[in-house]
Amino acid sequence: MGRISIQWYAYVIIGAVVVLASVAIDIYKMLLFIIVGGVFILIGLIKLLLLGVIKKQKSIVKHKSVSPPFHQAKQQHAHQQQVTKYVRCRVCSSVNYSHVDRCHKCKTRFR
Question: Residues near 8 by Cβ (< 8 Å), separated by ≥ 6?
Answer without folding.
Answer: 44, 45, 47, 48, 51
